[in-house]
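Tutorial handout. Part one gives the primary structure; part two gives the three-dimensional structure as tokens.
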Amino acid sequence: MLSTKNISPRQVSAFTALILATPIGLLLWYVEKDWIIALVCFGLIFLSSYFLISFVMERFIYRKIKLIYKFIYQTKATKREETYYKYILPKKSIDEVREDVEAWASEKKEEIDLLRANEQFRKDFLQNLSHEFKTPIFAIQGYVDTLLHGALENPAVNKRFLEKAATNVERLTNLLNDLDEISKLERGELPLLKQSFIIQDLVRETYESISIMAEQKNIRCSIKKGCESPLVVFADKEKIRQVLLNLVENSIKYGKQNGSITASMYNTDGKHILVEISDDGIGIPEKHLPRIFERFYRTDTGRSLDVTGSGLGLAICKHIIEAHGQTIHVRSRENVGTTIGFTLERKKD
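Part two.
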């Protein structure tokens, strides 16, 4: 049985010509009772119909289809490519053309959706970047103006104002350093110096380095029971230290008084180690979870809290983990807590 799914233009022409010629040939045979006349007429009608239909399809349909292909695959084609698209391109069935055009339309729709998402991201990024720079700059401007208008001569305030201005200058410096680092990570200009080390030891070192910050809120930092057995990973130790510092600092900033932070490590499949940092802090609303690794992105609750930082910590964490060829994820519930986990390569034997 003739399949119409991938029928070619010649097959369409021949099939249509056959449908036209057959009843006419049978009618002539019935009237004239001469099969030779009927067969000759059948042949003439079939051939003339075939060439006429082929001409019409070529002239008015498939030439247009070739132009569509030219537009789809190469809007600006060279002379050689134009010749190929116009004359040499193999004829395809209508179904094949439809499938190609639908695939092209789907691809373009995905590109447009991506461009729209990137445009929105660009707007949000510029808005957040402006906000992060304005805050310390306006503070510095205020302190300097106050000092220039007489406070410089007042020993009771001049040192305090200069210290506050210096704090905001440091904040700006950290912001620029973080922006520079994340740009280098994206461009692959910060090479990874991988080595084998015990991830539990690095977590303990991280806890020790920020113990004063945790003590201020009486937050207890620990390794989950059952996860104490040493697990050796193969990664850039200093960059993973930076990831852990960012995650634990965030847990302290957004953690509750007398709360806890727990690190857990698991050998998942023999090839990877899963590291998770969990807290019992304010949590993150579900609608914000897909965006927390964006640069400068903060939730409404996060912005309302008086916390310092460049707003780039989680974005840097994401880039460092992805530079290792691994993944990072988040789970969170409001007023329950947050868990951020990432995978690392297990030590090679």
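Part three, for discussion. The chain has three domains: 9-92, 115-187, 195-345. The chain has a mean pLDDT of 80.
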